[in-house]
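Structure tokens please, single chain.
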Amino acid sequence: MAYTRAVYYWIMMTIDHFQKTKEILNIDYESYIIIQTVVSHFLNNVNKKEEADWKKMWELTNSKKAKDNYSKPKLIISSISLIAGLPKETVRRKLLELNKKKILILNRKKGIQLGEKFEKFHKKFSQYTTLKISEMLNKWEKIGTLEFILNVDNQQIPSAVKSVDKTLKSTMKDFREKLI
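Here you go.
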């Protein structure tokens, strides 16, 4: 397995993703992360009740009933700030801009939700990103990295795993403390 080639493919995909965020979505990366936090909240709640394919997912993002049903508990600015690691004021300011564009909705009673223009705004980018991930995974499969990644264990990358484990435990502890 050519690990350096696999890492190169990952880095190039990450750089491309960053560039396409600005090019296709025409927003800064912090705004993108805020949107992704709202999307993840919505999808997490969808996944608790059902599984949706590509077509159904986009239907749900446009459904007022689905937005209301799948936005509980409601998402608020401080939650996004905590999850994204961004200052509340930055999140608030960027949310106001995204609300003006109708990409997200700010609603005191229902929380932050996907806006009426979300699908038009995000679908092309989602398609592009899915294709780029597929392209990278196919490259990884050809050089043996996909199998390695799917079966990696602590003995194969001991120092990295210990570092990640320690960071995750610390992050989860901090996250729990902030919630209390």
